[in-house]
Amino acid sequence: MSDRSIRSVRSARSAIAARSARPAEAARSARSAIAARSARSSTAARSARSSIAAWLTRLYFARLRKKGGLDLSVLSKLPDAALLPLRRDGLDPVAEIGELRDREPVSRLPIPGMTVWLVTGYDEAKAVLGHGSAFSNDFRNLVGNTGVTDDQNPGGLGFTDPPDHTRLRKMLTPEFTMRRLSRLTPRIHAIVEERLADLAKAADGDGAVDLVEHFAMPVPALVICELLGVPYEDRDDFQQFSVARFDVFGGAGASFSAVSQSLDYLRGIVAEQRRNPGDGLLGMLVREYGDSITDEELTGLADGVLTGGLETTASMLALGTLILLQNPEHFAALRDAQDPEAVAAPFVDELLRHLTVVQTAFPRFAREDVEIGGVPISGGDIVLVSLSAADRDARLGEDMDRFDPSRQVTGSHLAFGYGIHRCIGAELGKMELRAAFPQLVRRFPDLKLAVEPRDLEFRKLSIVYGVDTLPVRLG
Fold first, then answer.
1. Strand duo 382-385 + 364-366: pairing
2. What tens digit of pLDDT does each residue of 323-340 get?
3. Cross-strand bridge partners of residue 117
4. Whole-angstrom Cα distance, residue 279 to residue 379?
5. 366 — phi, psi (to 5°)?
6. Beta strands in 207-347 (DSSP E)
7. Which of 45, 166, 289, 455 could form a disulfide with 293, with the two C-beta atoms 3.0–4.6 Å apart?
8. What is the DSSP letter of 139?
9. For 338-463, where are the E strands, in sequence order?
10. What is the tens place of the pLDDT at every residue in 417-438?
11. pTM attached to this predicted model
12. How many helical (H) and strand (E) elements, i.e. helices and strands, does the chain have?
């Protein structure tokens, strides 16, 4: 690969920033607006949603918080074992967590001064995630001496318990059935085709291009725009802003301060939908439920859709492409299939299990004394569920560390969670992946990595695992 190609691929993020700085676009750049507001705001960067590691840091190192931000260097002071759920070896969870799962599927995390349990076994994970009354997700569990305040609540479904969770999910569920989502199918395919065309246009003379910037990230960003009803003219800005709001450790150009700023952006979208309800999800909720759903609830739900549907799907598209490029037989099967949907469905389902890019579920707080996998957990204890470890459990089937779309498993994977907090957008995510992969390999049948696999930089210590760039050559 030429030096020029390497520079082209590796400067993808800086190119976005440079374009945003141009005077002609400055006025409409969401990222610039976020940065400007962040500089003025002393309350930026206060959401615990972005990373379990950041959440644990808030709890244990709250006194080290800085005005308007967080000293992330304190992560180095946590015991290595405390960060085990966030560590990977390439595409696989580290061997240590698999050994821990097989030996002790419910174990104590070494967090001084706190009782935190790590659940790695499949059956034990389902027991925690599926228990309707013994565990709480309520954000208020974080408020108080943890350094978190009530006004930092991002809302939505993830940090809400019944009955509020039940009421909000009931409002959303009809829009996420396959029957209702099918209306998006033509637009999803059109968005994929548009981004593939952009991928080809962005490639340099050697055919090298960053798949994350020009395909994996914009596809789910634009689909979410369609779903929420974000105005067409705001979509480029929405995508840039969306990239910046994830992963405190630098994933996808993210910054911790962008999380709280995203809520400001979404409040503006909600206010416009209140005035002029559109055809998207937010407009539907406004028309159907009116004042019985508040603006903050709408903002939280929109943020939940963004949180659950952007970075996760982008990571699946990037890492799924990497698996295809490392397994030519699967690439060829998808490329040459007479019925791409029939081949894509089991491929995507196994991909979700094998990668489980959302590495841990939202923290659970024990409401009462309960026993999980024969281990007594006391009321008030914190429980973290390693979804990536549970999805490799031998109780699901044989040789679960191997990627095999033809495998038969004894239970469903946990890539979307389980129980009342299972990702409500799971079907939408699968629709995007089943559309994107066949179209990608058919459009670029000679697609190859533009760097050696060992040179890829995987995200470190992030709740959503992935790569920030995936240099490919289109051929």
1. antiparallel
2. 999 999 999 999 999 998
3. 108, 383
4. 45
5. -65, 125
6. 208-210
7. 289
8. G
9. 364-366, 370-372, 375-377, 382-385, 448-449
10. 999 999 999 999 999 999 999 9
11. 0.80
12. 21, 12
